Amino acid sequence: MRIVKAVLTLFLTLWVGGAVAADKELKVGFIYVSPVGDAGWSYSHDVGRQAIEAMDGVTTSYVEAVPEGPDSERVMTNMARKDFDIIVATSFGYMDSMLKVAKQFPKTVFLHCSGFKTAENMGNFFGRMYQARYLSGMVAGAMTKSNTIGYVAAFPIPEVIRGINAFTLGVRAVNPKATVRVVWTKTWYDPATEKEAGKSLLDVGADVVAQHQDSPGPQEAAQEKGVYSIGYNSDMSTFAPKAHLTAPVWNWKVYYTKVIDEVRKGTWKAGSVWPGMAEGIVDLAPFGPMVPKEVQDKVNAEKARIIAGEQKIFVGPLKDQSGAVKLAAGAVASDEELLGMTWFVDGVIGTTK
Amino acid sequence: MSLLRIAKRQEPLGVGGSCCVLAAALALSLALAGVFLALGGTSPLSALSVLLHGAFGSRHALEDCVLKAIPIYLCALGVAVAFRLKIWNIGAEGQFALGAIGATWAALTFPELPKVALLPLMAAMAMAAGGLWGLVPAILRQRLRTNEIIVTLMMNYIAVLLLDYLVYGVWKDPTSFGFPMTPLFSDAAIIGRIGGTTINWGLAHGLVLGLLVWAFFRFTRTGFAVLAGGDNVRAARYAGLPYDRLVFLVMVASGALAGWAGFVEASATVNRLQPSIMVGYGYTAIVVAWLARLHPLAIGVAALLLAGLRVGVENLQLDLQVPAAFGGIIEGAILLTVLAGGFFTTYRFTRRKRP
Predict the structure, then answer these.
(1) How does pLDDT run across A231-253, given as a tens digit for each residue?
(2) Residue B155 belongs to what domain range?
(3) Quick one: closest CA in A to B179, which residue?
(4) Cβ contact (<8 Å) for B164 and A186?
(5) Residue A56 in domain
(6) Is B11 part of any domain?
(7) What percent of the residues of chain A are helix, what percent strand, and what percent coil, each to the nearest 5?
(8) Secondary element (H or E) of residue A87
(9) pTM for this one?
(10) Could you say which of A108, A312, B99, B167 would form a disulfide bridge with B130 (CB–CB 3.0 to 4.6 Å)?
């Protein structure tokens, strides 16, 4: 009896296993710019990677902390040679390297996050994080008492500038008197530097600190001073439970699972995709207990408008810091304008240099 | 009351003995790395084979390895020149940055020049910029008695910030959407590849410069003076050697070689200037120079070894999901064990006789 059972089990396993193997096993490789333990950018992508790893017939692997430039080219080439079907690079600086490698391996699918160049077999993707930033700005604007909000920012590139502008527009929507002070760290992931930058903002009177950084350093700075903070990338409330109001967060799973299906069905096409809150790729982390109910309701109502496509955020009239009109009344900024944004809106204190 | 006593060797350990010590040190560091891997739940033996295969196991791997070794080699060569005089130049990183800046300036200013004119001009500008960056701490050291370790180290930060300033500002590519990078160099400003390989002609630069450095110490009077000055400053001064000038010379040469590495990297591998050109070759170079005991040929071997380690660790990550930090751990372990092994070339243990 026992033998029969064993044989049956074996048979069943083989049969089921064979059925799965009939569908081609997809190998997906990821390249991250920082260690996956950063709780930020690479971590959020890795959560997405784990979601597709859990899919049937998909195996994934990653190489972390790869410097942008020639090193990334080598890593991607190595992956392509090892017959990875899809290669995902998650930092802007990988773009040109990926383009070079993509030309050498026309059968491999290349996906680049946050850039603008594409090829026959290379697509790029990103998310409209500025929508979630706007909402987090509304929370910050409602919670500040000193009307000074700090913003620890990485590099003066369009992605970050766009985020600061959207945040500031959110702040001003609920609190026209508040200003946003920006400090550049020139790092993506440097916990000590980013914490110090957060402290420097607290010293000039900021009582809410937001960030475009991959470490939770600024969160810790805010918690130690007993003021509020807005996280980024992932829900950072565990690092600063008393300070963390909310955070604009990434949910890459939405895109990755979709693209895997497309590649498998053969419907994937190279191009640029820029999904937003409606698709669920960006979101707002749960509110901290200190955020009053009426603020939460107001933000959630606005979120519904964004999802419905009624709130486009960068809608004229928009003035820059000098008061010059950058976007005429009623006009909506085009994607090109958003992707190449190099100026601050009125209400930001700091320079884009 | 220990049974072992440390005694200085009458004669330094011979070549055979030194090789044994080196091999033992490498084995020890690999064993240490194996312990870390086993703790992380990875089989050390399969990891070692994946690592070696990724570094040296195929033609592609070897090409990648050589490509990576070129800038490390040039920087280490520079570092070794200064170390021979016991001038501790920790500033190869900054001199590398200045070299890249100098070469980029030439490439962006004269993009129309033919290759035969532009590449030498870029090399000359890189050497001049790197050399001058090396000269500053030398002058400060000899005139104001500053510590060259601190000054060269601090100047690294200045150099990197200067590079940032340029690529975020005046040299930024107007078509880059505001991202920090210069425009791509013209074809004339790019060092080509050797035949059908992916290796660039920077390899030949490295070989020639290595030969020159070796010949300088072996055959020239000044080279001998540097060696003598490194052995004993007072004796050298007493013998009438121009010590100040030697310090200036080695620091300029050191900076120029690191600058040349910056030129090769900007021109051949990155094809433009961007902040990510700085990946710590200048610091790796110090490790390499020490591992090789400052000998130009041995520096080549050590540079290949560490480049192989960096390349192989990527393979380890990809196949076995070992964390990226592991590469740094092995690198540190190798340096530590090899330096500790150096103790045995000048000292030995003798058994203490019972009274």
Answers:
(1) 999 999 999 999 999 999 999 99
(2) 43-321
(3) A157
(4) yes
(5) yes
(6) no
(7) 40, 20, 40
(8) strand A86-89
(9) 0.84
(10) B99
